[in-house]
Design brief:
Layout (H helix, E strand, L loop, with lengths): L2 E2 L8 E11 L5 E11 L8 E4 L4 E7 L2 E2 L3 E3 L2 E4 L9 E9 L9 E5 L2 E5 L18 E11 L5 E4 L2 E7 L4 E7 L4 E2 L5 E4 L2 E8 L5 E8 L8 H18 L7 E7 L6 E2 L4 E5 L12 H16 L8 E2 L5 H20 L2 H24 L10 E2 L8 H16 L10 H15 L3 E2 L1 H10 L5 H9 L1 H4 L5 E9 L4 E9 L14 E8 L5 E9 L3 E6 L7 E4 L8 E3 L4 H10 L3 H22 L7 H12 L5 H8 L4 H6 L6 H18 L1 H11 L9 H24 L3 H12 L3 H13 L5 H11 L4 H12 L8 H9 L9 H12 L3 H4 L5 H14 L3 H8 L12 H13 L6 H11 L2
Parallel strand pairs: 2-12, 19-20, 20-22, 23-25, 26-32
Antiparallel strand pairs: 1-24, 2-3, 3-9, 4-8, 5-6, 5-9, 7-8, 10-11, 12-15, 12-16, 13-17, 14-15, 18-19, 21-22, 26-27, 27-30, 28-29, 28-31
Helix pairs in contact: 1-2, 2-3, 3-4, 3-5, 4-5, 6-7, 7-8, 10-11, 11-13, 13-17, 15-17, 16-17, 17-18, 17-19, 18-19, 19-20, 21-23, 25-26, 25-27, 26-28, 27-28
The structure holds arginine and zinc ion.
């Protein structure tokens, strides 16, 4: 049944404390749950309905006595509870089967260890409970298990007691000093080892930090530990938010549905976001670890100390915490240019993943109104668009001496915690606190209208039209906004859109810079006394998550690319130059030939004496096939793929000597350090190699493929090695196959590296339909395992979701493959299956024959009996008109 936000009611009972006792056994784990409950006096008297899923119920006692109960649609219903508001004790004894738990929600086994994942609704798979975030309890947890097989026993909070039991077993008792909702509960048991670090924070408190991994992985935990220490220092420094625990633990597991989980004091992570060594992890991995460790740590305040009232408020913690991790990564990057690179990367994710979501069948507001399965709403809209909404709030509280709004926003955060610490609250509560702490700010003045960003789905379009009156030296810019309907929302009211606007003169010198806030459907800005027609730099820093439409001429874009002081719009100018050309070739069907001004502009960037390597790499990266598809009303994926590949080849050949120069300039980065400057140099060197190998394909020149193979062999770190391998794969050179084989042999015992090996092959540029047969063959590889989400993603998602040229085939074989994998995965892990199901979200935009074939494949999934709720919601929405 569909759950509606408007139906929210406070719970009829409170659970004040929970005593859990686990006898851990992979086949049959016994869970004794003793709760203290009382009726919520503000709600009408009613039966107690506890959530439970896939549990075997053995016993229910109320105040120590047997009682009558019913089991109905995965709820345990108690109708004959003591009357009145006095607390009573409820004891529930159940068993579950962790080894059979392939959904990886609740208690499960991975590599012979026990792990839990309770967000959003996994706790009900461990015991009967009020599984909702507004019920907060104190936890006292005893774990019992075989000592040899499970020497480490962990749960939230402080270890208060441990010891041996008969029969080779032992126990540990943990008490969490903080009350929490059950989605933050966690336990871990297994053969693990920890890197430990003791720290004293600014407030003078001592803490023990631990990163737990499997015994062979200890040498890959230094970066995660450094990232954790940096996170703690950052939150204290920027927001005055201290670590509130004596012990903070991170545990890595290789079977995990998502990235990581912020369980109080016991974060559980996908190994992908913990383990790193220079031999096995790329610069991107290092950066992701820093940001995910930060993200989960920052949840300790934004999510855990103040949590969500209900799951419709998910962005309260996720949007805010993504904003915080983005700011953390920017602050750590240091220099302005490195900060800008981070910002551009974040916007790129938003535009290639969130904008399509907002335009497709799964479009939903940042605070949704309904859902069938909450796991489907851990989306780029809730996370990334949610973060942009928080960022706009910061922008809209800027003031005198606080141009970015940082001080004003920090004041708002302080008020938020002053008001709501220890509570389960809503997005409204958050926005109100930020506004109230900044009276007189645009945010405070416009708050009700601003909050449309929470309630209205869809990406607004911001149109700009300029008018220049040479006679009076007057320049005007007319801004207007619109937003197309999304499912269930035919009409949209105007948004509050902060637009940072700069004006440049014809020589590229800045004339003005300021923030304009558009609140109406349209509005005109006028500037007079200008000597000549200025070039507008609109939406600097991407101050709002909108699609900007302005008919830039090539001449204007070239000025912005060469001179804009705003690095975001400087990059954006290059993207627009490339998009103009790509769309022209896609629409006209003309043979792709790059024009001299474009090539010269790209050459100037590559050869630029002061621009960062990382920035050059971003500028020279053509807009993705997915992003190009979003610019078109009707999509022929093969045509887009062919045009983009031809443009890449054009840049490869026309700039051959420049790529050689760039490679020589950037190829050596000295002893490996994952800092942004040297990472940027490695990225640009890798990009140069790819283009040099591509150019060699047409010229038949063997030198660069040979040099690339040598670099692959000699590389001192995974970034250089992988980039060299990727260059050989990208140009389809015959050296690629032996290099792939030797890569596999080198890293056959490194699961995360094997994931890269699968992903590289499944995501490689398609030549005449060659990728699908490779993918099918790799499904049979002894190292492939559909049950492991990382491995499934590395092969299947890399093909279906990240390789449009390979996936969208005229013979529909890609869709048939997709359909079979969705159904196969659904029986194992519905959450992962539903993610894959979304690969065809945008089917309605496809040209025929793709469109009809895609529809048929989706309908085939939808027709399967006993689909999970997760997949059913995705395919039903996809087929709705
Ligand atoms: N709260 C986690 C994070 O953002 C995500 C957990 C989502 N898990 C899930 N099964 N839906 O860091
Ligand atoms: Zn999160």
């Amino acid at each position: 049944a569909v759950i509606h936000r408007a139906d929210y009611r406070p719970p009829a009972f409170w659970i004040d404390s929970v005593e859990l006792c686990f006898d851990l056994d992979p086949v049959k784990t016994r869970v004794l749950n003793r709760m203290r409950l009382r009726r919520n006096p503000d709600q009408p008297a009613q039966a107690l309905r506890l959530d439970g899923e896939e549990l075997n119920l053995a016993r229910v006692l109320v105040n120590g006595q047997g009682t009558s109960f019913k089991l109905e649609d995965s709820q345990l219903i108690l109708e004959n509870l003591p009357e009145g508001n006095a607390p009573f004790e409820l004891e529930v004894f159940t068993t579950c089967a962790p080894a059979k738990n392939t959904k990886l929600m609740g208690l499960y086994v991975s590599n012979d260890s026990f792990f839990t994942q309770c967000e959003a609704e996994g706790f009900r798979r461990i015991t009967y409970f009020l599984d909702r975030p507004d019920v907060m309890a104190s936890y006292n947890v005893t774990l019992r298990a075989d000592k040899a097989a499970y020497p480490v026993l962990l749960s939230n909070g402080n270890l208060v007691e441990q010891g041996d039991l008969d029969g080779g077993r032992h126990f540990a008792r943990w008490v969490d000093p903080h009350r929490k909702p059950c989605y933050l509960f966690a336990l871990v048991a297994g053969k693990l080892v920890a890197r430990e670090q003791r720290i004293t924070t600014a407030s003078g408190a001592d803490h023990l930090l631990q990163v737990y991994v499997r015994p062979g992985d200890l040498d890959k935990t230094e970066h995660a530990m450094n990232s954790l220490m940096a996170s703690i220092a950052w939150d204290e420094g920027r927001f005055k938010l201290p670590l509130d625990l004596e012990r903070f633990m991170i545990v890595a597991t290789s079977d995990f549905n998502m990235g990581a989980m912020e369980n109080k004091g016991l974060n559980i992570f996908n190994t992908k976001y913990v383990l790193a060594s220079q031999a096995t992890a790329t610069d991107t991995d290092y950066a992701n670890i820093e940001s995910v460790v930060g993200h989960e740590y920052f949840h300790n305040w934004t999510g855990n100390r103040v949590t969500c009232r209900d799951w419709f408020q998910l962005s309260l913690k996720e949007g805010l915490t993504v904003f915080r991790d983005q700011e953390f990564s920017q602050d750590l990057a240091g220099e302005a240019s490195a900060r800008a690179v981070r910002r551009i990367e974040d916007v790129r994710v938003l535009r290639t993943a969130q904008f399509p979501e907002d335009a497709g069948p799964m479009a939903h507001p940042v605070r949704p109104d309904q859902y069938l399965e909450i796991n489907n709403f851990y989306t780029v809209t809730i996370y990334e668009k949610g973060a942009e909404v928080v960022r706009m709030m910061q922008t809209l509280v800027a003031g005198e001496g606080d141009p970015l709004g940082r001080a004003g926003f920090a004041r708002g955060m302080a008020l938020y915690f002053e008001r709501h610490d220890g509570q389960a609250v809503t997005c409204d509560d958050f926005a109100q606190a930020i506004a109230d702490a900044n009276p007189g700010s645009p945010l405070a003045r416009l708050l009700p209208q601003f909050k449309r960003w929470y309630s209205q789905a869809g990406t607004p379009r911001l149109k700009a039209r300029s008018h220049w009156d040479a006679a009076t030296g007057t320049y005007s810019l007319a801004l207007s906004q619109s937003c197309t309907p999304t499912p269930g929302q035919p009409h949209k009211d105007p948004f509050v859109i902060p637009v940072r606007l700069g004006l440049l003169d014809a020589e590229g010198r800045q004339i003005s810079d300021g923030l304009h806030v558009l609140t109406e459907d349209s509005d005109t800005l006028t500037m007079s006394g200008l000597a000549g027609e200025p070039v507008p730099s609109i939406l600097r820093g991407f101050t709002a998550p909108v699609i900007l439409e302005y008919d830039y001429t090539d001449a204007q874009l070239l000025i912005l690319l060469a001179h804009d002081t705003d690095p975001f719009n400087r990059w954006e100018a290059a993207q627009r130059l490339a998009i103009h050309r790509a769309l022209h070739f896609i629409r006209s069907g003309e043979h792709v030939e790059l024009d001299a001004p474009f090539v010269e502009a790209m050459r100037a960037v590559l050869r630029h004496p002061t621009l960062d390597s990382a920035f050059k790499d971003l500028v020279l990266t053509l807009p993705s096939e997915t992003y190009l598809a979003e610019q078109l009303d009707e999509v022929d994926p093969q045509r887009i793929h062919a045009v983009r590949e031809a443009m890449r080849m054009g840049l490869a050949t026309a700039l051959r000597h420049d790529w050689e120069w760039v490679y020589e300039q950037n190829k050596d980065t000295g002893a490996y350090r994952p800092d942004s400057r040297s990472a940027g140099r490695r990225a640009l060197a890798g990009m140069a190699l790819t283009h040099l190998c591509l150019a060699a394909r047409t010229s038949g020149d063997p030198v660069w493929p040979g040099k690339t193979l040598q670099r692959f062999k000699d590389a001192g770190n995974m970034t250089d090695r992988f980039n060299a391998l990727a260059a050989l794969v990208a140009c389809g050179h015959e050296l690629a196959a032996p290099a792939l084989a030797s890569f596999h042999a080198l890293f056959k015992n490194e699961a995360l590296v094997l994931d890269k090996w699968f992903a590289l092959q499944a995501g490689a540029p398609d030549h005449g339909g060659n990728i699908l047969p490779v993918v099918k063959q790799l499904m049979q590889h002894p190292d492939f395992n559909l049950r492991n989400p990382n491995r499934a993603r590395s092969l299947i998602f890399s093909y279906c979701s990240a390789n449009p040229g390979g996936f969208h085939r005229r013979d529909a074989a890609g869709y048939v493959f997709w359909c079979e994998r969705v159904m196969e995965l659904d029986a194992i892990n519905p959450q992962v299956a539903a993610r894959l199901a979304r690969a065809l979200d945008r089917w309605k935009k496809l040209a025929d024959p793709y469109r009809g074939a895609a529809r048929e494949a989706i309908a085939r999934v939808a027709a399967k009996p006993d689909l999970s709720r997760d997949v059913r919601e995705v395919v039903t929405r996809a087929l709705a008109d």
